[in-house]
Amino acid sequence: ATQGACPFRGTRIGGAQGSEPGLDHWWPNRLKVELLYQDPPQANPLGRDFDYADANAWIDHDQLWEDVRAFLHKPVEWWPSDYGHYGPQMNRMSWHSAGTYRIADGRGGAGEGMQRFAPINSWWDNGNTDKSRRLLAPIKAKYGAGLSWADLIALAGTVALEDMGLPLQGFAFGREDAWSADTGTYWGPEGWFGKAPTEQPADPQAGHPDQMVNRGLRWQGGPKDQHYDLENPLGASHQSLIYVDPEGPGGNGDPMDAARDIRETFARMAMNDEETVALVAGGHAFGKSHGAVPADKIGGAPEIAKMSEMGLGWANPVGEGNAENTMTNGIEGSWTPNPTRWDNDYLTNLFKYEWKQTKSPAGSLQWTPTDPDAPKTPDAHLPGVEHPLMMMTTDLAFKVDPDYRKVCERFLEDFDYFTEAFSKAWHKLMHRDLGPTARWLGPRQGGTFLWQDPVPEVDHPLVDDAQVADLKARVLETGLAHGDLIAVAWASASTYRDSDKRGGANGARVRLAPQRGWAVNDPARLDRVIDALEGVKADFEGEGEAKISLADLIVLAGCAGVEAAAQAGGHDVTVPFVPGRTDASDEWTDAESFDWLKPVVDGFRNYVDEAVGYHVSPEGIALDKACLLKLTAPEWAALTGGLRVLDQNWDGSKDGVFTDRPGVLSADFFRVLTDTDLVWRPETGEERRFTLERRDGGGATWTATRLDLVFGANAELRQIAELYAGADGEGYFMRAFVKAWHKVMMLDRFDAKEARKAA
Ligand code: HEM
């Protein structure tokens, strides 16, 4: 092709191909408002009316369970199973699917089957999980849309555990597949030996010795204390890959260093020491590591593999490229003499023998017993061949770290206790991001655990329309300001995050620790409003049979507040209200894990926790929150602008309260924001806070933060602000505000599916 030829003749790459350089390359620091439109409905071939719960209810769960179990024992030629059992490799796939979960922002996890898409499908750490998923394709095809990939990926490793002898807590379906890659989640650095992804070798089949380091933590290398980053506060930048390097940090072979990394990464997954040991010692009771072939012979990851590989990757040219020649991680060998049976041999041998460093055929650092008489493990494919046992540096971590060691000793003494601990930790791992039990499907869901953030069942008739009207009147009669009612309803509902479906108004946990004490919630006001609402509830219930939960009343009070604030501006609106929430107790609340829901930046209430060091702009974090609340850009703008004029700043400051009638719901915020007669002056070079002045020197003066001005400065958000500010804009604004308000109140109402969908 000649330079400069017409792009539309196809002589130059570009146009609809989305080739570089794109918008993000030209303007890497622009606010990516489009992150609000992840996994759009257009990507989903099932259509908007598809209901996974309905579809899943139709499948024969017992038959499915049996199909998966039978599959584990039927090796196929293109990828024979080790030891004649697919259980261990399925278990690793399930664990890797769920193990991306991080409690900081609830992202990652098994919930949407993201292991099918880049970047996760191509992480070196996920090597050969492409084969595990492809092996399951016939089962997926048999059950079709009634069985999501996300559920099947979690199910396969769970059935495998049961088949190999672990008693299960249960298994719930309900994970709805995403249909496109997640481009918003920051997973930490990826690349080839420090090269940017764009510099990766063009030929996918040219071996990449450097691939070995494409595993997050290792890649960062460098001094010990810098090998992974503790970036705060944006949840999405909280961690690199979940995986710790099995050879120790930076491949240093130091079990004590490995212990520190394991503790940190598993804590980010919301697992304590006991759960961590249970999971790893439990998982490594099974299967083997694969390192028969040097990494530089292995082809590219699925995302850059050749077309003929049909979505699989890591082509291995040695022998058939599988069975005894399999190369996955690089370490070679098994931890136990019976790799397909649930037993305590992993811990027994770990503690009974001394271990010395050795190298796998692929050159990876691993450990072998010093005692030549230690038990051996059979070859996974060759009859009559045996190998010494293997441990990774990360396995030895449990022996050398004093706290892990204590847990191991308990597990060694009491195998039943260990069995139960592993079974429970596995259950939590698989279901951590499935959300409220109303989302759980299938006949074998198991018991209720604290990490599910349980709420009681509704055990009384719900209030009818007349009672709702009566309650609204009673709430307004308490004399609480409209703003107070709005503040508490917002504080209650806005903790929701769609990533792991935690938080929200149900349970009324806003009245419990830790939420009741968060500065952003203005604890003094919260106490006052909760007390008053408890009074309303007591009076109302004292007068008859009807009952209302505090969780419902908090939301209802918010509706009354918004309606009154709109009325004050001459708008007659009704905010929908759907009863059915119940009140959780302290005993039902894991306070420590709820503290992760505390906002570090809340754009809706102009809150920035200055104690936290920031790598990301406040507006970037506000966008992240809008994303977790599933808001569209017009909804995000309407809620922010509306809450400003409703005087909802957490500390009562007037930043962004661009109105001379605070407390009245109006589009004033947008009128001032887009007023060309105003000029914004930053208070400092950092542009954190601004003074707004009239160009002609007269009239009102306001102050603002970045969280206000972003709606006028960002090109896309400004279009919305201009619409709301226009002569005919207040109607658009009012509709968007009320709709978005109701949507946020309903985000956690999986129990009221139709009403939630309609919101
Ligand atoms: C295999 C590392 C935690 C279950 C492996 C392999 C590595 C590894 C390097 C070999 C992969 C291959 O080459 O085929 C680690 C590290 C962990 C960890 C560093 C955390 C410190 C877990 C957990 C589970 C688990 C929590 C499950 C509860 C398994 C299983 C296999 C395996 C079943 C065998 C797979 C097979 O036979 O194909 N692990 N793992 N691992 N891991 Fe882990």
Question: How would you characterize the overall build of this protein?
Answer:
- The structure is a single chain.
- This protein is mostly helical.
- It has 4 domains: 37 residues, no CATH class; 349 residues, Peroxidase, domain 2, CATH 1.10.420; 132 residues, Peroxidase, domain 1 (Orthogonal Bundle), CATH 1.10.520; 159 residues, Peroxidase, domain 2 (Orthogonal Bundle).
- The protein is 37% helix and 6% strand.
- It has 26 helices and 13 strands.
- It has a 3-stranded antiparallel sheet with strand order 11-12-13.
- It starts with 22 loop residues before the first helix and ends with a helix.
- Bound molecules: protoporphyrin IX containing FE.
- Protoporphyrin IX containing FE binds next to helix 4, helix 10 and strand 2.
In short:
This protein is mainly alpha-helical.
The CATH topology label of the largest domain is Peroxidase, domain 2
In helices, the fraction of residues equals: 25-40%
Q: Beta-strand percentage?
A: 5-15%
CATH class of the largest domain, please?
Answer: Mainly Alpha
Sequence of strands across the biggest β-sheet? 11-12-13
Residue windows where pLDDT falls under 50 for at least 5 positions: 190-241
